[in-house]
Amino acid sequence: MRGAHPRVVLGLHRSRHERRLLTGALDLGVTSIDTSTNYLGSRSHTVLARTAGDLLPRLTVSTKVGYFPGPERSEHSLEPVRLYEAVEKAAQDLGREPDLVFLHNPEHSLRDSGGHGRDALAQACTALDDAASKGLCGAWGVSSWDPYPLIGLVDSTTPRPSILMARAGLLVGVRTLDAVDALTAAWGLGSGSVWGMSPFGGSTGDPVWDRIDPRMFLRNGDGFSRTQAAFRAAYCLPRAVGTLAVGTDEPAHLAELLDALAAEADEETIHEYRALLRKCSSGQPA
Questions:
Q1: Is 205 among the domain residues?
Q2: Cβ-based neighbour number of residue 281 at 10 Å
Q3: Per-residue pLDDT, 168
């Protein structure tokens, strides 16, 4: 068994939630998993409790609230009572309190808030803050696929999350990267308080990874694969990513990514790449 890897979280977004994956992760030293109330057809929590209930005490469990089952498809809500009750139900379904609960993609509802986004976000954050203070979860955070709409809605009256999670990696646009930096500053989040997700932009099998070689973003990257290099570079895009959530159903793939942590990112090259992204987004010649 390897030593613990606090910087890697096993994400269960597209996972089959098989027990062998969780035992394999534990054998590799990965002791954190990330799920959501709406994963696996809104059955993630109950399936985890049924198939791996004895393993959950050995794992740090984070989950998300914000999406709710609807007549035809899931619906999103920032209504404080619904969020609070969702945290309660998560603890019941898991058979234990989650260590961390994220407010899931608040921008989804904030777009339709009719100019009341600041209040809606503050009230939703307050609901999770109350849940944590009452012991329904260990801590709370905000998970956002598109954090840009949150800029300008955070002020001194907005409860501060423990963690901000957003997309990370070489395929993330500069608007998202800048938004994460802005929210990190607005909330006063310290080092290690930013989590990244989706470091491959969806899949390591995407053709883009055959067209570019991410090893240019590593110092002495010859000993690593393109997948490993892309994973390691994601810790620097956005800045100060302390933890990456990554999904897989194969422990061997997870082991490959863990080996990438030994690589050293070339921060100068990554800085130049981010500057290039900014030029391209503004229409300036590259």
A1: yes
A2: 12
A3: 97
